[in-house]
Amino acid sequence: MLSVQNLSKKYGKHLAVDQLNFMLHRGEVVGLLGPNGAGKSTLIKCIVGLLRPSSGEIHINGHARGSRAARQTSAYVSEIPQLYAMLSVWQHLQFITSAYEVEHWEEKAEALLKTFEIWDKKDEFVKTLSKGMRQKLSLCCGVISNAQLVFLDEPMVGLDPKAIKNLKDLIQQLKDEGKTLFISTHLLDPIESICNRVIVLKKGKIIAEGSLEDLRHQLGEEHASLEEVFLEVTADV
Ligand SMILES: Nc1ncnc2c1ncn2[C@@H]1O[C@H](COP(=O)(O)OP(=O)(O)OP(=O)(O)O)[C@@H](O)[C@H]1O
């Protein structure tokens, strides 16, 4: 579903993403982990076409990054909600479904807004929404697109505990539907049981990759939590 080959991204002289190679297979949920500044957002922005890589190749379902086909196949929920001040909550969903050519979306839109408890805000403009509500709308926009590959960059930031639980259920539902998800997050508990695999970045490089079982095995700690594995693989030696 996604192929990343020899991907590097420099900001001036700073190498934020350093020669990355990995694939995501159809139906996989993969967690992208790493300390602050590891390069997670840069990587995702390169994949979705918001940043131009310095070198390397990216293909989404066989289509070159940035192409119309690649864009139609993927949805991106950014770490800071990118919303339109002059559109209401409902108009956002109308706009996204029209861009992705999704038909009969209204029922799903209503269910999503109710799940995230912003149904009563459906006719409100973005400026009247709280930070968490904006994040919820941003997630609804990502999911309503029906894209096969969904990138979530720190999707849990700003959400209340119930919304985190609802998001976790939604991710599980998308996984059951066969969607592929790539989720950057610092909150490891909610994704521990859902992710098939994690990729751990540090200083722009992949320093660990595999299922939680694989990583536990590599560390010789059969009962370690994802958080314990993360702390151990990212520790400075
Ligand atoms: N626009 C930019 N210009 C220059 N350097 C940047 C820019 N954006 C990010 N960087 C640098 O690139 C590196 C990777 O940043 P990035 O935002 O991708 O990390 P991250 O893993 O998403 O971090 P966080 O977990 O804190 O969100 C950091 O060293 C950061 O300072």
UniProtKB/TrEMBL annotation:
The keyword Magnesium appears for this protein: no
InterPro entries in the cross-refs: AAA+_ATPase (IPR003593), ABC_transporter-like_ATP-bd (IPR003439), ABC_transporter-like_CS (IPR017871), ABC_Transporter_VariousFunc (IPR051782), P-loop_NTPase (IPR027417)
CDD domains in the record: ABC_DR_subfamily_A
SMART domains: AAA
PROSITE patterns to which the protein is assigned, alphabetical: ABC_TRANSPORTER_1, ABC_TRANSPORTER_2
Cleaved signal peptide residues: none
GO terms of molecular function: ATP binding; ATP hydrolysis activity
Domain ABC transporter: residue ranges: 2-228
Keywords assigned: ATP-binding, Nucleotide-binding, Transport
Keyword set includes Nucleotide-binding: yes
PANTHER family linked: ABC TRANSPORTER ATP-BINDING PROTEIN ALBC-RELATED (PTHR42939:SF1)
Name of the protein described by the UniProt record: ABC transporter ATP-binding protein
Species this chain originates from: Desulfosporosinus fructosivorans
